[in-house]
Amino acid sequence: MTDPHLRNPGISLDRSWFEEITINTPAAEARAAHLGTSRSLKKEWQAAWLVNAIRCMDLTTLAGDDTEARVARLCAKARAPLADHILTGLGLEGLTTGAVCVYPTMVAAAVKALQGTAIPVASVATGFPAGLMPLPLRLAEIRYAVDQGAAEIDIVISRALALRGDWAQLHDEIAAMREACGAAHMKAILATGDLQTLSNVYKTSMVAMQAGADFIKTSTGKEGVNATLPVSLTMVRAARDYGARTGVKIGFKPAGGMKTAKDALNWQILIKEELGTDWLKPDLFRLGASSMLGDIERQLETHVTGRYAASHRHALA
Amino acid sequence: MPSVNDILTTMEYGPSPEATGEVSAWLKARGRFGLLIDGAMTAPGPGFATQNPATGETLAEATQATAADVAAAVAAARAAAPGWAALSGHERAKWLYAIARNLQKREAFFRVLEVLDTGKPIRETRDIDLPLAIRHFYHHAGWAELSTDDFPGHAPLGTVGAIIPWNFPLLMLAWKVAPALAAGNTVVLKPAEETPLTALAFAEMCLELGLPPGVLNIVTGDGTTGAALATSAVDKIAFTGSTEVGRSLRQATAGSGKALTLELGGKSPFLVFADADLDAAIEGVVAAVWTNQGQICSAGSRIFVAETVAERFTDKLIARFDKLRLGDPLDKGTDIGAVISPAQRDRIQSLVARGVAAGARLVHSSAPLPAQGSFVAPGLLLEAQPTNPCMIEEIFGPIATLATFRTPSEAVELANASRYGLAASIWSENVTLAQDVAAKLVAGTVWINSHTLFDAAAPFGGMRESGFGREGGREGLRAYLRPAATPALTEAPAPDFNAAPCPEPAQPQAIDRTAKLYIGGAQKRPDGGQSWRVTHQGREIGLAPLGGRKDIRNAVEAAHKAAGWSKMTGHARAQVLYFLAENLSLRAAEFEARLAETGHDPAEVAQTIRLAFRAAALADKIAGEVIQTKPQMLTLTRPEPWGVLGIACANRQPLLGLAALVLPAIAAGNRVVAIPAMVQPLVAADFAQVLDTSDVPGGVVNLICGPRDDLAKVLAQHDDVAALWYAGTPEGAARVERDSAANLKATWCPTGRDWAAQDLRETLTQATQTKTIWVPYGM
């Protein structure tokens, strides 16, 4: 995520891109369900796609009891997400996760633990997870995290503005956050569980992209409902429509609720079918997850050894 | 095999073929198949090979059933019929349940076998064909249990001849066999020549279950086998297939007394309104046009898009091509498999070439086609005009036309401009608009924001030349039952229609009375300018107008103009019918005298008044159902009037015989052109005056007196008359059925009935056709 050409410059608010859009929920749900059953990945292909999920994973800890030591353990796993024998068995080397994602106060610890790697540190900011803090404080928090060494900032939007349809203020806020990010790439968390309707999700996605978000991200992981396939479908279609109008490729990050290797495959299938193969790499796709890695590692060990695997034989994240 | 590292660069899906081991072994072990007749497979006879359309390889050989084989199968079915019908509903339910369960236990086998025989993708046989077939047997196990209670007085038809197509072989088998058996009929089934294998596996499964001999018989073969079955001693023919074959079956069964249901071709519109969720509609096209390579009767093969969104929609749709995976049908990631045969591929390509020659622009998927097998690239014909052959003829392949409309009313007009009327879909987020369009489309099934959804509980079938009869649900079951018989009344002979003057003195009248035809709410002299002498026992009663072809034509036009009647509420129609009863009652003595004059029973007047009350009573109670199909889905059935309905009356009951057909018909919202009893047309002329004074809008009832069977022929051959009832002689009924084949008009021939004993609800059932509307909902 260091190529400056990949940044989304944003545009001024244009309501005509989203105001008359309505998303048909049953159709979105049907498409999401269909995607997972209409493509099949076996053997080497399944293994490769699971490895790709690791490559695109923002290995995350965002808990009240996070400590520097906990973050260091997570970073160790980000450096070596698979046991050596699995990696060798797959014929790979140097595999890492896409990033490590932490709270701003943990950025320094993560940067330190990841020294000598190319793994970027992502930090949540802007009063994560609710975002209900005065704007200047939210912007200051972004600057703090960037100062601490975060290369990516996962901001949360003001759900109140989206729910009220105050698109102008939402656009201005996100644009201000984008400016505060500076060189750090910005992922805009829409908290889709709070937005509830797919039409809201589409509109909010479009405003976030117009305001300059490099990535749009589903959830904080703290809402009642986190990443779902129909919500993700709606967001990637919004990204596709934005790209068709501007030529800018927007990244997508589902987060929260995804726990299994099967989830990792389903989301990648969604991306390939709705956006394209180009998106299946870390600069345009991230999976915000933590426990998913354990299941992927088990599946990959089974692929390599032919035996069903046990998680207690793998290093903890 | 590429390495993990290689795949990480390409991020391709890789192959994912379904194993065929058991199925291949079964095919190899059998090699050649006989027929299922009377509970055993016959020794294989001379026959034909069935191929895998994706590879061209021969899978097995099936027997070409001869006329003698068909006769043996029908004899076995007839012999088994009384025993099967005598079983309790519960006993039959247990058999249907066993079939459902066993199909479920053999699901993997059947889905692979179906792929090999049809070339369709395994994802479809896994997610569509098998689950729906299994559901059909479960649903009808339920009907077997319930039909005696839900259809009191009804009896099974006897033996059913079922002829099914190659596009959904096992599912179509289920659609025919499940309701037939549930209702207490026995079956002779002829699978399509191209795809006999799942039916033969099903035969073996039924033998394994120990289904009583003769209850289900399966004869394989080509069209000659089907023709033999059509003319055999079965009591019903149930057919799914092409409109052309449907037409020939209508002719072949005319006058035989066989019940007939036809589920035929279509040219279904796919309407995208400006406020639609365009991405949802794009996936709708995938389901509508590319399911089963477009070889589906309900394919949404005419796409119409609102001009304001047409460019965006077209761009998105063309981009969608690139994501379609075409190839090995056994691969679990294949979207588009092979079409059924090289002949079908050539037919599709030649029709599309004609469409291009007529000015359409073909855009299609750039995916390479496999070197062998019958594959056609999915595509779209842009800029096709309504004159384009691809807008008119059924393509039955993975290609649809795309054109634009300006307004909703234009969309409806374009959609309804077709000889077919099978299905339609509407894409709009505006529920007000969508429901209105759904009501206006001429289609047996309307999907709102969806397409290609089916369920055993949802009636499916066509309007216009897409056929008649419904399959699935209550309507579908009814088509396998016979209502309790109405007491018989032998038809009286036709009078002499001599229009020449007669020297014998007529009864003196104070002022000459002039009976006329009743057309468009006005008394009209016949176009031919002729009248004939109505006599009783040699005595002249009066002169009656002699209606002819042009009078029928004028009456049909008048009936079409009275479309407002069909849009009125049942309540409003009931008021008119009550008023009619009131006015008839005021003139009761006059009508009684009129009937007595020709030796008819004056009691007909009181019976007609009661009938008008009952028709009025039911007018606002004709209702559809909300049926259970899928989660988050409102599935509605709407009984809709045919529109313009022809009626030819019997002679015995001049007033009641007319009212017993006309009043229920108009109660249901039809406009009718009726040919009253020939022996006493003057009653009809008087009745016209009652209609006139009862606020029956002009054109709702048109009365044309004259030679019934000649006039009925004009109605039968009229392309703009939707249905025809004929109550005359059996010979006349045969002619009406034959003459109706040209436009596949629905006919009902209740000949030789005592209308005083008729169950009005049966008549009302005939007065409507069911439209099924699917509305998915969700927040």
From TrEMBL, chain A:
SMART domains in alphabetical order: DeoC
Superkingdom in the source lineage: Bacteria
CDD domains associated with the record: DeoC
Pathway of action: Carbohydrate degradation; 2-deoxy-D-ribose 1-phosphate degradation; D-glyceraldehyde 3-phosphate and acetaldehyde from 2-deoxy-alpha-D-ribose 1-phosphate: step 2/2
An annotated Gene Ontology molecular function: deoxyribose-phosphate aldolase activity
CC terms in the record's Gene Ontology section: cytoplasm
Tagged with keyword Transferase: no
EC number: 4.1.2.4
Signal peptide as annotated in the record: none
Gene Ontology biological process terms from the UniProt entry: carbohydrate catabolic process; deoxyribonucleotide catabolic process
EC class name: lyase
InterPro entries listed in its UniProt record: Aldolase_TIM, DeoC, DeoC/FbaB/LacD_aldolase
Entry-linked Pfam families: DeoC
UniProt catalytic activity: 2-deoxy-D-ribose 5-phosphate = D-glyceraldehyde 3-phosphate + acetaldehyde
Record keyword Lyase present: yes
Keywords for this protein: Lyase, Schiff base
Family: Belongs to the DeoC/FbaB aldolase family. DeoC type 2 subfamily.
NCBIfam families: deoC
Name of the protein in its database record: Deoxyribose-phosphate aldolase
Species the sequence originates in: Rhodobacter viridis
Automatic annotation (TrEMBL), chain B:
InterPro entries named in the record: Ald_DH/histidinol_DH, Ald_DH_C, Ald_DH_CS_GLU, Ald_DH_N, Aldehyde_DH, Aldehyde_DH_dom
Keyword terms, alphabetized: Oxidoreductase
Record: active site: E263
Entry keyword Oxidoreductase: yes
Positions of the Aldehyde dehydrogenase domain: 48-482, 537-747
Keyword tRNA-binding annotated: no
GO molecular function: oxidoreductase activity, acting on the aldehyde or oxo group of donors, NAD or NADP as acceptor
Family under the similarity heading: Belongs to the aldehyde dehydrogenase family.
Protein name stated in the entry: Aldehyde dehydrogenase (NAD+)
Species per Swiss-Prot/TrEMBL record: Rhodobacter viridis
